[in-house]
Amino acid sequence: MLRLPRRLVQRQPLPRRVAGRHRVRFALAAVLTVLAAGPVGAATGAAPAIAPATTTAGESEAARAARIAENRAWMRALPSAPEPTLHRRGLRATELARWPVRGANQGVAVDADSFYGIGNFVVTKHRKSTGEQVAEWIGLRGGPIIHLNGGHVVGDKLILAHSNFPQLPMASSIEVYDTATLKPLASTSLGIRLGSLTWAEKRDGVWWACFANYNDAGTTPGFDQRWTHVGRFNEDWQPLDSWLFPPQVVATWGKSSCSGGSWGPDGLLYVTGHDAPELYALRLPRSGVTLEYVTTIEVPFEGQSWAWDRSAEPDRIIYGISRERHEVIAARIPPVVDAPEAR
Fold it and tell me: Which of 19, 172, 174, 184 is the most exposed place for a label (fewest CB within 10 A)?
């Protein structure tokens, strides 16, 4: 028997390029074997694999144009939201009393026994029963208190929103006064913000506040009243949420902005503009970034900051001012039917 030398019968390594080709062939053969076996789980009764989606790789230009036109027609046919309009439903406040007040050209606050007229750098205290003035605080023209706005009473403290309007850059603060003497007690600077603080109050442990922007003087260049917003802030005045105003409400402001606002006992947010004798009921939206408009209530004062008389609840008594007549006015507002839907 012929014996070949061992070196001739030993397996020789394949060249690297040939070996690579063999590996590709083996891998391809394995893939074909799996595909030929059918979808995974077919033998066990599992659901078959989902068929691949139709692609547009072979779509003609005419077919593509027809498909796009059909999609656009479908989008145009989708339902639209109703046009943003005001509706009043015949809601009108009933005037209860009015008193002449000196210097109250910005707003008013109220507690169980007194109301407080608020001017740019003037605060006065009056008896609710007679309107008699019993205390007064007056700052300095050109001093640190420039433009006091909305206020409310918490215990023995009068909490007032303040800004440097119409100066720039826009900056704001919270000013606290003693309700008995009107002596200033504390001040919290909020620094430079987008807007001037017009009203602020605490609710459910957080601050709610409005930062107003305008269409005339006193607004950062490049911005206007559409940038007015209501924000929710923590104890350190760090922002948590914010919302824009409905366009139909913004349209009532003229060149000005939102001057007053406060949460009602019914869970709605009530706001006023600068001049219109109207109170607008709003609520937080279920989605989006804009407050939802509910309805309008006619009131006997021309916008500006105003206040709930919390001591009169469940009666719905509010206090406002007339800049033109230099008066403070008390009124009762009707309930809003949509209020139970507020959150």
Answer: 19
The pair of structure tokens assigned to 54 is 């139709």
Higher pLDDT residue, 193 or 340? 193
Task: Give the containing element (helix H, strand E) for 64.
Answer: helix 61-76
Q: Is residue 236 part of a domain?
A: yes
With respect to residue 88, please indicate whether it lies within any of the assigned structural domains.
Answer: no
Torsion angle of C-alpha atoms 139, 143, 149, 153, degrees rounded to 10: -50
Host H or E run for residue 329:
strand 327-332
Instruction: Give the confidence band of 287 by pLDDT, cuts at 50, 70, 90.
Output: very high
Number of domains in the chain: 1
pTM for the predicted model, two decimal places? 0.81
Contact 233/207 with Cβ under 8 angstroms? yes
36 burial level (CB within 10 Å; 0-12, 13-18, 19+): exposed
Question: How many Å apart are CA 21 and CA 194, to the nearest integer?
Answer: 68
> Which residue from 295, 307, 302 is spatially nearest to 254, judged by alpha carbons?
302
**Burial of residue 15 (number of CB atoms within 10 Å: 0-12, 13-18, 19+):** exposed
Residue indicated by tokens 């074997």: 33
Q: Is residue 333 part of a domain?
A: yes
Does the residue 192 lie in any domain? yes
pLDDT tens track for 315-337 = 999 999 999 999 999 999 999 98
**How many CB atoms are located within 10 Å of the residue 5 CB?**
7
Q: Is 254 helix (H, G, I), strand (E, B) or coil?
A: coil
CATH number at residue 225: 2.120.10.30
